[in-house]
Amino acid sequence: MEIPHLRTDDDKIVNPEDQGDVVLVCLANRGFPGDWKLGMRQGAGGALQGSQSQEVLEKDGHYSWSSSLTLPANQWRKAGSVTCEATLKDQTPVTQTLETEQCSQ
Question: How many CB atoms lie within 10 A of CB 66?
C-alpha cells in the first residue's frame, strides 16, 4: 500500500479583508488504492470537514485528490491551525498541519 503525500498549498490560500472568506486547499497525490478519504480539521481534534474531489487516476497507476474548505476570515484566525488528513479504513491517518501564522494576512 502506498500512502498519499500531502501538502497544503499556501499559494491557494485566499485571505481577503476581515469580512471575507479564507479558502484552504489540500492536495494529496501518489496514493493507492483509490478509496482514501481526504478532509480537514480546524484546530486540535475538530470534526473532519471540507469537500473532497473525485480521485484522479494518474498515468503511473497512482491516485490524486484534493479537498477544499472555506471559512470566514475571523473563524480561520480563531482556529489557529487546520490539519489536512488522509484516511484509509483502519490505517493510521496521514496528516499535514497549516498554522494560521504561516500565512500572510
Answer: 20
